[in-house]
Amino acid sequence: MKILFNIICSKNVKYSILLLLLLFIYICISAFSYVNAVSKDISESVFRLHVIANSDSYEDQTLKLKVRDNVISYMNTICKDAKNKEEAIKIADEHQNDFLQIAKDTIKENGYNYNVTIEIGNFSFPTKTYGDISLPSGYYDALRIKIGEAKGQNWWCVMFPPLCFVDVSSGIVPDDSKETMKENLSDEEFSLISDNDNSGIKFKFKLIEFFQNAKIITAKQ
Question: With the C-alpha atoms ordered 56, 119, 73, 48, is the resulting torsion angle positive or negative?
């Protein structure tokens, strides 16, 4: 034990431990800086939709999807010429009353009288995959629609670039949507969210998820 203690207390070992500690701190800081920058760029490139059903009953979940479809259809019409997320948010903000009315009309037409609330804000999203595009968990600007008591399962998608498919089951992201997103991201950032078998890219995506899920990055910067 005494020999081991002497080894640990030796100057060279102390320097080695200090260097390893400094290297570990440097790696952590570098990883955090990378994740923070990438997360910020990705979140600033998309405007999302969040629809919350009244409950998890089959009827309420079906109603949620009908509200979603009508809202997406309207959004795609008014935002078809939007060049970036800021334009899409501005247009959505100017038409909040229209979205509210569409949701109310859809609910009424289906025989319900649920209240609806709509807001544009910065909300937490889990990791979601849209066809061959995956967005890491984090905070994103979004249009949120709450139906009734809003205690049911959510629907998440991307309103800009339009990744909310007309045929949701097809899993095909329109090429022009990909191109718009690619124009707003670096090549590496786009590779991170695209379907990619590169192990290095997959590791970086997992790294982003780790920091986000650990709440080390807690909101949009």
Answer: negative
Query: Distance between CA 221 and CA 215 in Å, rounded?
Result: 14
Closest CA to 159 of 181, 138, 137: 181
In a domain, 7, yes or no: no
Q: Is residue 139 part of a domain?
A: yes
Overall domain count for the chain: 1
Q: Which domain holds residue 124?
A: 46-213
Tell me, yes or no, whether 18 lies in a domain: no
Nearest residue to 66 via CA among 131, 147, 178, 9: 147
Q: What is the DSSP string of 144-184?
A: EEEETT--S-EEEEEEETT-S-SSGGG----HHHHHHHHHT
Query: What's the predicted TM-score (pTM) here?
Result: 0.68
CA separation for the pair 160, 86 (Å, rounded):
10
Residue 61 lies in a domain: yes
> 62-80 pLDDT, tens per residue?
999 999 889 988 988 888 7
How far apart (Å, rounded) are the C-alpha atoms in residues 144 and 124? 11
